[in-house]
Design goal:
alpha/beta, DNA binding, binds magnesium ion, single chain, P-loop_NTPase, FtsK/SpoIIIE/SftA, binds adenosine-5'-triphosphate
Length: 251
Amino acid sequence: MLNNIITIAPGLVWNIDQAPHALVSGVTGGGKSRFLLYLLLELYKRGQIRVIDPKRSDLYQVTKRLLPETHVATTPGQVGRLLRETHDELMARYERMDAFGQPGVTYRDLGLQPLTVIFDEYAAYIADIEDDKKLLKEAKKYIRRIILLGRQAGCFIIIAMQKPSAEVLSTDIRDQLSMRAILGQMDSTGYTMVFGSQPGMRYEYRPAGSGYLYVPGQGYSIPQTFDAPWIDDVSTIEELLWKVKQQKNLN
Ligand SMILES: Nc1ncnc2c1ncn2[C@@H]1O[C@H](COP(=O)(O)OP(=O)(O)OP(=O)(O)O)[C@@H](O)[C@H]1O
Ligand SMILES: [Mg+2]
């Protein structure tokens, strides 16, 4: 079985167990969705994925036939349900870990695989449900719980949005997203929102498909420049996903 260390670029890795959850930001056209496609493929090789794509763009297109209907959400109702069901799975995993009766037990000890929710266009979703206070409250509650309790149970979330302002993504949630990436150009307030204040740091212009990345615990203390894996054609990811699925069915 593959371990949970995903290579992002030469010399840059992301261990999802050590640095759970992620935030992917950047201006429109910066390359967020392409980068998410790469992460999606790597996470599908290693476990289960759930996809939220309110704009029905790349993520939705490559997974709509591959995954069960309830694992891909685009409308507010579907998103609410997907988050609730992921939360239920998280709770079920905790019950099994409790029953295991050993302190410090993790999902790995139970032979379970990581389950990752990949949430593109988070801000668009929040704007869509702004007037539905109940749905908004519920969605935020589930996301918060997945983030706070997910590591041990192997339930993770990747949130992508153009600019993670505190009004849209509360800071208590943002702070728990360990891996951070910015794709393409960003202004200085955006860099600070994602990476915190980095005195002396000078961010350079980054074209689409490249940017800055920070993963805690990797021996560097400032965001690193990186080039996202190149994905010229989205359909190549779809083909690779189907191959992984076939392989999974054989096992
Ligand atoms: N890793 C990549 N490999 C190849 N092309 C890329 C990559 N990243 C970005 N591009 C190019 O930039 C375009 C925009 O990328 P992408 O759709 O991922 O941006 P985005 O940040 O999701 O934008 P939006 O906020 O509008 O959804 C792509 O259509 C592609 O042409
Ligand atoms: Mg996009």
